[in-house]
Amino acid sequence: LTSAELEGVRAQFPILARQVNGHPLAYLDSAATAQKPLRVIEAESAFYRESNAAVHRGAHTLAGEATELYEDARRTIAALLAVDENEVVFTSHATEALNLVAYALGTASLGRGAGASAAAAPYGLHAGDEIVVTELEHHANLIPWQELAARTGATLRFIPVLDDGALDLDAAATIIGERTRVLALTHVSNVTGGVTPLEHLVPLARAVGALVVLDACQSAPHLTLHPRELDVDIAVFSGHKLYGPTGIGVLYGRAALLDALPPFLYGGSMITTVTMERAEYLPAPQRFEPGTPRIAQAIGLAEAVRFVTEIGLDRIAVTEHALTERMLAGLARIPHVRVLGAENPAPRVGLASIVVDDVHAHDAGQVLDEAGIAARVGHHCAQPLHRRFGVTASLRLSLGVHSTADEVDRALEAVASIRPFFGFTEGAPA
Ligand code: PMP
């Protein structure tokens, strides 16, 4: 983006006008949740002011308008992903989407109970089967699989991380095998920003007929995400990290798979016929959207998708890449600062997690906050990966479409000041 375009983008985010601790806010926490452009806030608000009604089956005008807006939001997401609209399920967030898939596979494993049709049986897991994840995973793409394994008797295995933060592809080739039924992995690590080499891993799963579940939370805001091109069966992301509202997530599922899988939650809006004894379910996506859905949130997310696609995700990627390089080069020059996964040669998106010698991440984060810089501290819901790196916590700087070189430079200066602030004299920049 040109500097004029960047100014135009920034002007659309009301929160960026804020001062924090006497400084202009430098929001470097987009990987946790993105800020919202005014048009997203207004799209949600306009729905409540003008068209609010429950969707589907309403006879009145507002219900018709609400349904049209909600289904139009689904079409917008489908276009973003280059998939069919019936392959897009709205959930509360990525966490729910991943739980939905794991739970549905668990129901399929039972081979009985509501919705576990014959079509679902081939997807069931049993003792001896294996679920494969990676050591990079966010807890949201780990714990549901731990629980699925516990419920079905399947075994959970993981592809280990090498010292540089890359996945061990040689190990992957032996771990993914005839017993593998599911490969669940992240597209981009929320700790290192490294892009997973799907081109090496997905074919291994395909060769043994395993389902591939992709956690696209950290890629959707930064890269073009086309699940069919990536050859994955499921891809999930959260709306709030893509400049959309909280309370909305997206589950893409290959049509034949979604239609075979049993529902996750049961109730209204998902059925064809109900008797006192049993119920029959609508096809996807309705079978996975029981109850009154997240209407305003879906409409807000569709506006956010229009916002990023109008700028162009490919152009956003180029600008963010340059800023990422500036950030990494700057961090490398600061003594006693370690960037987790810095040596990994894989492409990466705009984030870096650092450890400052002798200073706890929370204290480091305080120094940045004093300078008006918002950064995340802790384990970022990836305890196993932090353990692998031999640390318990890190400080994460993450970029968004509105990030500037000046903000990165301010963050670098603040990071360089951390050790001196705590009295370590030999910590000045080289
Ligand atoms: N996976 C990854 C890689 C993430 O970064 C996050 C959010 N930190 C999640 C899953 C979970 O997203 P949510 O909390 O919106 O469900």
Automatic annotation (TrEMBL):
Residues 27-410 form the Aminotransferase class V domain. It comes from the Bacteria. InterPro entries: Aminotrans_V_dom (IPR000192), Aminotrans_V_PyrdxlP_BS (IPR020578), Cys_dSase_SufS (IPR010970), PyrdxlP-dep_Trfase (IPR015424), PyrdxlP-dep_Trfase_major (IPR015421), PyrdxlP-dep_Trfase_small (IPR015422). CDD domains: SufS_like. Catalyzes the removal of elemental sulfur and selenium atoms from L-cysteine, L-cystine, L-selenocysteine, and L-selenocystine to produce L-alanine. Pfam families: Aminotran_5 (PF00266). It catalyses: (sulfur carrier)-H + L-cysteine = (sulfur carrier)-SH + L-alanine. Belongs to the class-V pyridoxal-phosphate-dependent aminotransferase family. Csd subfamily. Its EC number is 2.8.1.7. GO terms for molecular function: cysteine desulfurase activity. This is Cysteine desulfurase. NCBIfam families: sufS. It is an enzyme of class 2 (transferase). Keywords: Pyridoxal phosphate, Transferase. Its cofactor is pyridoxal 5'-phosphate.
